[in-house]
Structure to design on (230 residues):
């Protein structure tokens, strides 16, 4: 299975602090996704990114969230002022070139907001 | 909007036996894909199997197979010869497609326990 890596694996932060979650997809990928999973709940779509632009975002993805690809390889999700309810597992997903219908997930970042 | 329903919150099966997990979905799209993802206690999301809606033949991957009933909008997962390592949450997911990649819409999951 194609590899998508994420850093950090765990992050603990204080409410109101900014966090940046990073994803390194397989090379030559064009589509990127962020999903969130609150403990015990289903996986929810946050945002999709194609050709260096947001292509779709969910209601969850409000002004506190942003995504970018600062250096052409890493793909980041920033939460500007974290809230307690942002505590969740955050997954980056990306389909490999030539198989865009199949998204492979990274191992996730477990975010805990205190 | 598409919805995915998994009506079995929890299931259990004896090792070496067969178990079927249910999934139904609602969509007005004609072209789409369906997936089953496995989430073990590590919480990583692992792709199990994929089905293209335009294919009548059910997908199979080793011990995993699906029963895809397009008219009924049903997409069940059958696990044969269950192993202890199959213990995990299983999520059914839907993706519409218009030639590119689209977001996944997930069900709430089924927790499967394989007993020795």
């Amino acid at each position: 299975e194609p590899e998508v890596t994420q850093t950090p694996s765990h992050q603990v932060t204080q409410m109101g602090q900014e966090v940046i979650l990073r994803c390194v997809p397989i090379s030559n990928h064009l589509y990127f996704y962020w999903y969130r999973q609150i403990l015990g709940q289903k996986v929810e779509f946050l945002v999709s990114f194609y050709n260096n632009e947001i292509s779709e975002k969910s209601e969850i993805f409000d002004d506190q969230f942003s995504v970018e690809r600062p250096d052409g390889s890493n793909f980041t999700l920033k939460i500007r002022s974290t809230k307690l309810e942002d505590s969740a597992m955050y997954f980056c997903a990306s389909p490999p070139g030539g198989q865009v219908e199949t998204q492979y997930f990274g191992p996730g970042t477990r975010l805990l907001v205190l | 909007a598409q919805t995915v329903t998994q009506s079995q919150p929890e299931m259990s099966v004896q090792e070496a036996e067969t178990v079927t997990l249910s999934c139904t979905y609602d969509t007005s799209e004609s072209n789409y894909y369906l997936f089953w993802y496995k989430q073990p206690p590590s919480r990583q999301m692992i792709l199990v199997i994929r089905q293209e809606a335009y294919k009548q033949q059910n997908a199979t991957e080793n011990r995993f197979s699906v029963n895809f009933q397009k008219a009924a909008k049903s997409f069940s997962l059958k696990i044969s010869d269950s192993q202890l390592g199959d213990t995990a949450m299983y999520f059914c997911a839907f993706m519409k497609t218009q030639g590119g990649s689209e977001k996944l819409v997930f069900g709430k999951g089924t927790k499967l326990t394989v007993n020795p």
Notes: Chain A has one domain: 5-113. The CA atoms of residues 31 and 50 of chain A lie 5 Å apart. Chain A is about 0% helix and 50% strand.
